[in-house]
Each structure stands twice: as structure tokens, then as C-alpha cells.
Amino acid sequence: MMKKGKLHVYYDEEGEVLEVILGKPTISHMKNLGNGTFERIDEKNGKTKGFLITSFKKRSEKKAIDITLPANLEIPA
Q1: pLDDT confidence of residue 34
Q2: What is the pTM of this model?
Q3: For residues 61 and 73, is the Cβ–Cβ distance under 8 A?
Q4: Distance from CA of residue 36 to its chain's centroid?
Q5: In degrees rounded to 5, what are phi and psi of residue 57?
Q6: Residue 63: other Cβ atoms inside 10 A
Q7: Do 37 and 30 form a contact (C-beta atoms < 8 A)?
Q8: Which band of pLDDT confidence, cut at 50, 70 and 90, is reported for residue 77?
């Protein structure tokens, strides 16, 4: 079971980038999952801290975007 905490959602309309961060921000790196999606991974413990999706507006108009936490992301092309 995932620990309770805050979910931070940021959307840059001009850049069409959606970022979701789980819990407090930490030092992390982005793992490229392909197809314009990235997983934010905590540098200390290797756990998933969030996701970043590019071209979000275009993608969200077509189909639903499913995110299964803590680490699986399915997004239409």
C-alpha cells in the first residue's frame, strides 16, 4: 500500500507539459519511458516520485491517460 501524502499537479499550458509529483519534492532524476513520458525517481531511495508527460493537451483530447501507481504509466501515442 502506498503511503499517504500530497499529490502536486503542475500544468504548463504553453509548453503542453503535465507534471505530477508525489509527496514532498526531493532530489531526483527523470527516466525516459518513451513516447514523451518520463518517470521522476528519487536519487536516495530509487522510488517513483512522479511523472512528466509532454504534448499533454493533444494526448488528453484523444483518449484517457491511465496511471497505475506507484510506477506503471500507460499513455496513448
Answers
A1: 87
A2: 0.71
A3: no
A4: 11
A5: -60, -45
A6: 11
A7: no
A8: very low
- Strands of the chain (E only): list them: 7-12, 17-22, 28-34, 37-42, 48-53, 66-68, 72-74
DSSP H or E run through 57: helix 56-62
Distance CA 49, CA 71 (A): 9
Q: How far apart are CA 3 and CA 22, in angstroms?
A: 10
pLDDT digits (tens, 9 = 90+) for 11-63: 998 999 999 998 888 999 999 988 889 999 999 999 889 999 998 887 777 66
- Which candidate, 64, 53, 69, places its Cα nearest to that of 12? 53
